[in-house]
Specification:
single chain, 34 strands, 2 helices, about 50% strand, Neuraminidase
């Protein structure tokens, strides 16, 4: 048997030469840099559905498959073309795109933060990345913002959903609230923690870049890498309502409560330094938007304060639900009576107060999640959604 041994120096992922697909291992390899490899050519033939296929590159030149370390590599363009799929290469994200590119995150629509702080403090029911909404409703699903492409991803009952790139991060209620991740296509489900201590109120997680910030053992503030390594305690304080913005973590410190048993607002650097108390009175439901923190005081009245702790300003509204994003405050009123079940919005300067809807059931949840032009709210194990302009109210798929 004739074998030709050739050494190639492949730098990074230089797909201008050829794009290959891995066959026989079921394992994806992520790498960059330069590496010298020994490849074996052995007159390997390709058959697809009983038809012989001669692999060719984009210029029409024949390209022979090869073997490296016991694994056979085939040119993906030839395989995809034989299956009626187009192939392209996104250099910005280093992504081989086979078929529809719409579902592939691009450099422009990959999140820096896994979810907005206002959604996290409301249970993280839904998260937005690009034109996809990822949400929990009797399991984890995704749907495009235009209502198409609904896909069921996992039976896990999820909280605090975060999405960055190809990964979804969440608390798995089905497994003692441990932190999990799963690919946006529903594969590679992985537990990142195995020692979660369930807390009725303090299970928050925020994903920022390569780190997950969360309430861990004894409700103390921790971080862990998105691959599950380098678990690090940031603070001994008991923390709730975590918001991560830049190099700062904002939270309610339940180790420093006021006379109404509400944790005072604090901030601390992501490396654990410069812990700073921001308020004298306690609060809850804090949402960081720009240079301002919006929160409910110990009597559920709405306030805002600058991220340096100055300029505390009241809104004269008593609320039971709060979310702040993109210049708008979304809320529900506290107490009973008319308007209690309404969903409202107003601008962050207090103007433009508007009823979004008065038609929600009486027992609709107050956890307002805003994803693009949609609002998602839990309801008796399901999720209601409605446009932020008050139209298209319905149960989520």
């Amino acid at each position: 048997m004739k074998k030709a041994h050739t050494k190639w120096l492949i730098k990074g992922l230089v797909f201008s030469l050829i794009i290959f697909v891995l066959v026989g291992t079921g394992t994806a390899i992520a790498t960059s840099g330069s590496k010298e490899i020994l490849v074996v050519y052995d007159n390997i033939k390709l058959m697809i559905d009983g038809v012989a296929v001669v692999p060719k590159d984009a210029a029409g030149n024949a390209v022979e498959p090869f073997i490296c370390n016991g694994t056979t590599y085939l040119p993906v363009r030839a395989v995809a073309s034989a299956l009626g799929k187009s192939v392209s290469w996104d250099g910005a994200t280093k992504t081989v795109i086979i078929g529809d590119a719409a579902s592939i995150p691009t450099a422009e629509n990959i999140n820096t933060y896994g979810n907005i702080g206002g959604n996290i403090v409301n249970g993280g029911v839904a998260a937005l990345q690009g034109d996809w909404i990822y949400y929990n409703s009797d399991g984890l699903s995704k749907i495009r913002t235009d209502g198409t492409g609904w896909t069921f991803l996992s039976t896990d009952n999820c909280e605090y959903v975060n999405v960055i790139g190809d990964w979804i991060y969440y608390r798995n209620v089905s497994d003692n609230h441990n932190i999990y991740k799963i690919k946006t296509d529903g594969t590679a489900r992985t537990a990142l923690t195995h020692d979660a201590q369930y807390s009725y109120t303090n299970n928050y997680i925020n994903v920022a870049g390569a780190w997950i910030y969360y309430s861990g053992e004894n409700e103390n503030l921790y971080k862990i890498r998105t691959d599950g390594t380098e678990k690090t305690k940031i603070s001994d304080n008991k923390c709730s309502y975590i918001n991560v913005v830049g190099d700062w973590i904002y939270y309610c410190n339940d180790s420093d409560m006021d006379s109404y048993y509400s944790g005072r607002l604090y901030k601390v650097k992501t490396d654990g330094t410069q812990s700073t108390r921001l308020t004298t009175n306690g609060g809850e439901g804090l949402c960081v938007d720009g240079d301002w923190i919006y929160y409910l005081d110990n009597m559920s009245f709405l306030y805002k304060i600058r991220t340096d702790g100055t300029a505390r300003t009241p809104f004269d509204k008593q609320l039971c639900g709060l979310n702040v994003t993109d210049g708008w405050i979304y809320y529900r009123l506290a107490g009973g009576g008319e308007g209690y079940t309404y969903i409202y919005k107003m601008r962050i300067d207090g103007t433009g107060n508007t009823i979004i809807t008065a038609d929600f059931p009486n027992n609709i949840n107050s956890q307002i999640n805003v994803v693009g032009d949609w609002i998602y709210l839990p309801y008796l194990g399901d999720v209601f959604k409605i446009r932020t302009d008050g139209t298209q109210m319905k149960l989520a798929d």
